[in-house]
Specification:
CATH superfamily of the largest domain: Tetracycline Repressor, domain 2
CATH architecture of the largest domain: Orthogonal Bundle
Protein name: TetR/AcrR family transcriptional regulator
CATH topology of the largest domain: Tetracycline Repressor, domain 2
Largest sheet: none
Order of helices and strands: HHHHHHHHH
Keywords: DNA-binding, Transcription, Transcription regulation
Structural class: mainly alpha
Number of domains: 2
Pfam families: TetR_N
Mean pLDDT: 88
Number of strands: 0
Number of helices: 9
GO molecular function, one term: transcription cis-regulatory region binding
InterPro entries: Homeodomain-like_sf, HTH-type_TetR-like_transc_reg, HTH_TetR
Radius of gyration: 19 Å
């Protein structure tokens, strides 16, 4: 291994350590009350190193959000690919499979998910979250083959996406995996009924 590869590995390891420590501190204290000094101390590094990698508390929070978002998108895309490879073509079946994957990811990453739905985030985060939510609605509309340019179609996809988002928040408060699975199964059944084309 060359020197640059070794440095990159150490750098990646430090970044992972910083993100893990920031998640712990944000989860314990909330974003507003979280201190960079405490995050750096949990990592055993000077605060300056934290700034060098993430530029401060906002950068750490946004990196956690980006990581959660990317993992959820990867998980959902992999599920949809697997379903299509099995020959599934029905838009509702694909949508519900994707929703299930998303909700299972929300359960698996519930600590981070719970943090990201709180109202205690950095300035401007709500606008970023709304922008991502709009993109999520558009992806769901394409998956369900619904014309979101029509108000009725847009509203239907928005309602379905809101159901998934609300359920993801509820999963953060589940007591155990059995309860989480029951909720996911129940909501997927509801989504099947709500997704059916009108008429």
């Amino acid at each position: 291994m060359g020197l640059s590869e070794e440095y990159a590995g150490q750098d990646g390891s430090l970044r992972r350590t910083l993100l893990d420590a920031s998640l712990e501190v944000f989860a314990e204290r909330g974003y507003t009350d979280a201190g960079l000094t405490e995050i750096a101390a949990r990592c055993g590094i000077p605060v300056g190193s934290l700034f060098q990698h993430y530029g401060g508390k906002r950068g750490l929070y946004l990196a956690l959000w980006e990581e959660f978002r990317e993992e959820q998108e990867r998980r959902t895309a992999a599920t949809l690919t697997a379903e299509r490879n099995r020959g599934v073509e029905d838009p509702v079946a694909l949508f519900v499979a994707g929703a299930r994957a998303y909700l299972e990811g929300a359960w698996d990453n519930r600590r981070l998910g719970r943090l990201l739905v709180e109202d205690d985030g950095p300035a401007g985060f709500d606008a970023l979250r709304r922008q991502w939510d709009r993109a999520w609605v558009r992806r769901n509309a394409r998956l369900l083959e619904i014309d979101e340019r029509r108000r009725a179609g847009r509203v239907r996809v928005s309602v379905l996406t809101t159901v998934i988002g609300g359920t993801a928040r509820e999963l953060g408060d589940c007591g155990d995996e059995t309860e989480a699975r029951e909720i996911v199964d129940e909501v997927c059944g509801i989504l099947i009924h709500l997704s059916a084309p009108p008429g």
